[in-house]
């Protein structure tokens, strides 16, 4: 399989599994439309790019330092629990499309960036599985590294665009009674991820 195609597929496989980022994109797309949902994905991609740079400069080993893991689990679980509670509490107000699109886009961008930066699952993938894959690829095909990276992020971006569009498109046809239920479901899922990271934090500490 060509390197660029394998990179594209890897990018899709990284983005597709249901996790905090996908849930946030779906929730935002349903309640606020395409662009705010897309900018959650763009914020997450910026965090992924930062991880890629750190891996490239050989800083992957720092993610496995216990104190660093504690910090990540604290911020990650706290952020997801907060977003879950907010989703449930604002299930009715979220039905109103934002009147200030620029502020909604900026808030979405920071939400996506924050979730990706402090999501231990995301970090373990980049610095663990993908870190070793990238090192091996760089050793074997050093001249194609940039092409590999570009197609990897293209795969992630294609999925984020598709998910944002689908959430926004189908959100227009959902009834007013169904939208709050979806926000509650998304909030509960985010809470579950947050509690899962809290349990991992307990494992690291004890």
TrEMBL record:
It is found in: Cell membrane. Keywords: Cell membrane, Membrane, Transmembrane, Transmembrane helix. Pfam families: LysE. InterPro entries: LeuE-type. Its main location: membrane. GO terms for cellular component: plasma membrane. It is a multi-pass membrane protein. It comes from the Bacteria. GO terms for molecular function: amino acid transmembrane transporter activity. The chain crosses the membrane at residues 6-26, 33-57, 63-85, 105-127, 147-171, 178-199. This is Amino acid efflux protein ycgF. It comes from Shouchella lehensis G1.
């Amino acid at each position: 399989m060509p390197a660029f195609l394998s990179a594209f597929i890897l990018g899709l496989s990284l983005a597709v599994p249901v996790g905090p980022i996908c849930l946030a994109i779906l929730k935002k797309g349903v309640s606020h439309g395409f662009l705010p949902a897309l900018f959650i994905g763009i914020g997450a991609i910026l965090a992924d790019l930062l991880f890629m740079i750190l891996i490239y400069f050989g800083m992957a080993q720092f993610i496995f330092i216990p104190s660093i893991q504690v910090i990540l689990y604290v911020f990650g679980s706290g952020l997801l629990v907060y977003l879950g509670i907010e989703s449930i509490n604002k299930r009715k107000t979220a039905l109103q499309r934002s009147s200030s699109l620029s502020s909604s886009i900026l808030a979405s961008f920071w939400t996506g960036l924050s979730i990706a930066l402090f999501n231990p699952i995301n970090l373990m993938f980049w610095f663990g599985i993908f870190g070793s894959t990238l090192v091996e690829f760089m050793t074997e095909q050093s001249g194609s590294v940039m092409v590999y990276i570009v197609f990897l992020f293209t795969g992630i971006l294609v999925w984020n665009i598709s998910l944002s569009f689908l959430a926004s498109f189908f959100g227009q046809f959902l009834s007013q009674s169904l939208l709050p239920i979806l926000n509650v479901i998304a909030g509960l899922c985010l809470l579950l991820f947050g509690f899962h990271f809290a349990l991992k934090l307990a494992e690291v500490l004890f």
